[in-house]
Amino acid sequence: MITVPIEHVILMAAILFSLGLTGVLARRNVLFILLSIEVMLNAAGIAFVAAGARWAQADGQIMFLFILTMAAAEVAVGLAIILQYYRHTGTLDVDAMGGGRR
Amino acid sequence: MLSLLWLIPLLPLAGFLSIVLGGGRMRGSMVALIAVGVVGLSAAMAAAVAIRFIYLPPAGNSFTQTLWTWIPATGFMPEISLRLDALSLVMVTVITFVAFLILLYSAEFMGGDEGYARFFAWMDLFVASMLVLVLADNFLLLYLGWEGVGMCSFLLIGFWYRDSANARAARKAFIVTRIGDAAFVVALFLIFTHLGTLTIQEAAARASREWPVGSGLAVAAAALMLAAAVGKSAQLPLQTWLPDAMAGPTPVSALIHAATMVTAGVYLIARANAFFTLAPFVQWLVAVIGAVTLLLAAFAALVQCDIKRVLAYSTMSQVGYMFLALGVGAWSAAIFHFMVHAFFKSLLFLGAGAVIMALHEEHDIFAMGGLRRALPGTFWAFLIGAASLAALPVVTAGFYSKDLILLCDWTSKSGSVWLWAAGLAGAFLTAMYAFRLVFIVFFGELRTKPGRKPGFRMGAALAVLAFFSLSAGFIQIPPDIVNFSPLSELLETSLPRLSAVSVGTQTEALLQAVAGLAGLAGIFFAWFFFRHPALVERLVLTPLGSAFRRLWLEGWCFDRAYDALFVRPYIRLAEINKDDCIDLLNRTLARACESMHYLLIGTQNGRVRQYAAAVTLGAIVIIALMVLL
Amino acid sequence: MNTVFYISAAVAILSTAMVISRLNAIHALLYMIVSLLAVAMIFFVMGAPFIAALEVIVYAGAIMVLFVFAMMMLNLGQEAVERERNWLSPASWAGPVTLVAVLFAEFIWIVSRTGGSLPGGGGLGPKQVGIALLGQYLVGVELASMLLLAGLVGAYHIGRRMPRTGEENEASRAGISIKQ
Predict the structure, then answer these.
(1) What span, in angstroms and rounded, lies between the C-alpha atoms of B409 and B323?
(2) For the whole model, what pTM was predicted?
(3) Quick one: pLDDT at residue C177?
(4) Assigned domain for A55 exists
(5) How many CA atoms lie within 13 A of B550 on its CB side?
(6) Cβ separation of B620 and C110 shorter than 8 Å?
(7) Where exactly does CATH 1.20.120.1200 map onto chain C?
(8) CATH level 3 topology of C2-124
(9) Is the preceding omega at residue B237 within 30 degrees of 0, hence cis?
(10) How much is the ipTM here?
């Protein structure tokens, strides 16, 4: 078991979260955006588990479990949407999505 | 049996709901079956209840059924409770029975109309509301029914809403009756604040105990209720909506604007008789309004050319008779006339509907004529209705009810010769315009070739109503002929007796003979003028004659007067007021909202990444606030 | 043990940076798996072995396999990489990076004001987690199961191969009628 300061763990989670956010904002490929969202969810999970470990409570891990469930459902539906979108338009460009409605 | 009372209003309501929810997917025959069936069931229930009530009267001659507490508030607990006594029993029986026949008639009459299901849904809702109105145990529930019938009247007058004239007529009816409705609400407030209850019997008892006769509160309450009744029953000065209300389908005119809704005012006054007894002046006013309305409307009916408008003015006039009876304290005579009038006036309207249908939507009586041989069934039905309306002696029901009213005007302590004379003149005029209609429409030469003839369902309704228009009078025969009056005996268990000075049997017989002769004279004059059209022409062409004709044709020009006195000044005021500072403020607000809308529309561009960036920006701002504050 | 944490953290951060910057989706996916394994390591050393196992099985295993399948069905080739290169100009990076940098600065500000360190010791095993999960959080578990079911049904429904145009629609209808 480690005894590093809690800030370091949270900081790492923050770095991962920021990287994921950068991916969401910078990439145009929907697939990458979905991956980046996974990174962000994972970072949030790290923060939960770290907080749970800090206070020696199981709640943090349970929150991570819920995040995991959510991520699984989200990826399944998201990938289905991407596949269908690609089948219809032949592109994965997120900027082309929803543009026709203006 | 009596405990099933709640089913009577519920059945039509259930019919309304099922048609409203599923009518679009049902076939027309199914809709008609439901709509007519529920009202028929309701009528059967009413008949069963009536038999039980008459042969085995409940304790106190009334039966109250409390269903649930409507609004449970401290000190104010109006309940959904129904009260059956002799008055509401007569009303319920007549309403369900006549409504059933009229709906049966409409099932054929309205066939092929695109709003078939809509029509029946609203008719059922109307019947339900009307039954709630007459069965209500407290004023608030009564008011619910009161507004319900008003709304259905509005919807059904404007039934063919594509024609803007019909929509305008519907609006007019709604707004004019609303004046009375507002007065009714004020009356309810007054009764509740001063008597602490809205239960009709309780309020009447407390009023009789606490308010002296002629006190200001009693006069105010009675006057406000009179205003409500005047609006709903199309009496002076709020009568202008009724002739225009003929824009609706003919069965609607028969049910709502002849048989039931317009008599709601009569019912209200009879139901609240204790308040009117406490305010003799207002009761006298009721009689005067009735007398004046019956005369004015009868004159107007004399010159109308539209068959339905003649009947509309006639309805106004006949309701005037009921008011006259109420005003002299002859409560049961008024209800008797209501019953008889419901039969013969709906018969007349339905007969007129059959004529209109046969002549392809022709309303002008001068385009009709000679239909006696072409439509014999309709002719006989219409003739019976007209005879009953004209109070043809001995054989028709109208004779007995009208005669009773005239007799009560003479004998009542609060009656007078003038009221009696007005009623007598009205009887003469009534017979004249009724038979003018019969002669012009059914005699003479054939002007328009009739098309579709009434089928079985319309014929059955006409036949049954014709039978009752003749025979309904026999349940109340004047004592000098045969002493047989079960109706007034029944009604006097819930309504006060007429306080009359006794006149001899001879005087009574004389009065009856005079009343009967007035009717016969009216019929004779109608025939005389029909045979000598040149005479009529010369009469109309004199300056005085033409002026009166124009005056009567427009219903004494009340519309024009109201237009000049209220409508146009109001519109002008509204136009002046259109650009005041509050409107300016509102418009600025609207414009600000609009520009904000265009500003925000730019953010809804469908670009997911920009949304994400916006979320990030929001997070940054919120965290910054958290950190800094 | 602390060293293991720092090494894993460095691996996770580096591989995640690679994830968001790769042009080829399969490469990004592989880096993502590395990142997830590193995070699993961190969980393990933080005293959450159960979560570490789930991270490997569910995240690195199931979810990433889902991605792999999706990519295989999309069948992206070399031209997809070229297109990514066009999309990822430095100018397109600048805005997001600035925005995220500001957010990150705020994170640091907040984190710097907290204190305390991990307690060490045995950590929390699957048993404690299980007791809490099926006791206190039972409703949450039920909701999660419902969410998964909804995700399953939704993914199946959305992912059906639907006819793209009217022509195909008619063709498929014709096909059905032939079968009948």
Answers:
(1) 11
(2) 0.69
(3) 41
(4) yes
(5) 7
(6) no
(7) 2-124
(8) Four Helix Bundle (Hemerythrin (Met), subunit A) (1.20.120)
(9) yes
(10) 0.90
